[in-house]
Amino acid sequence: VLQRIYENSKANNEDCRVCYARHLCNACLGNNRIATGAIEKMSPSFCDTIRVIAQQAVVGYAAFSRSPELREFLASGKQVEDLQASGCDAVRASS
């Protein structure tokens, strides 16, 4: 079992090796075992969830970066880290 765990990596898994979201994924061997019966086999629903989250993050970032308000905010010398989240919206931090 320890050898199987040691050999279990994204580089050795043919599905993970070609997945665009592989660097965002932190799969759990226990969850793999429960979902698929093997620690080496990824749960398709887990993979789909990670890929959808990655897609939505990219789409959200693209929309966010086109915002004239954000461009003005960044042009003023402030950084995205200066924003504070309020509910589902990002608002300017009080200065």
- End-to-end distance: 56 Å
Which class best fits the helix and strand makeup?
mainly alpha
Number of helices: 5
The global form is elongated
Low-confidence stretches: 90-95
Number of strands: 2
User: Which strand-content bin applies to the residues?
Assistant: 5-15%
The string of secondary-structure elements, in order, is: HHHHHEE
Rg to the nearest angstrom? 19 Å
Main sheet: which strands, in order across? Answer: 1-2
Mean pLDDT level: 83
* Quaternary organisation of the protein chains: single chain
Q: Helix proportion of residues, in percent?
A: 40-55%
The main sheet comes to: 2 strands, antiparallel
Walk me through this protein's architecture.
With 95 residues, this protein is mainly α. Helices cover 51% and strands 8% of the residues. The chain has helices at 2-7, 14-17, 29-36, 44-65, 68-75, and strands at residues 83-86, 89-92. The protein has a two-stranded antiparallel sheet. A hairpin with a 2-residue loop joins strand 1 and strand 2 (89-92). The chain is elongated and about 55 Å long. The termini are far apart.
Summarize the structure.
With 95 residues, the protein is mainly alpha-helical. It has helices at 2-7, 14-17, 29-36, 44-65, 68-75; strands spanning 83-86, 89-92.
Which descriptors apply to this entry?
95 residues; mainly alpha; 5 helices; 2 strands; 51% helix; disordered C terminus
Helix-strand blueprint:
Layout: H1 2-7, H2 14-17, H3 29-36, H4 44-65, H5 68-75, E1 83-86, E2 89-92
Antiparallel strand pairs: 1-2
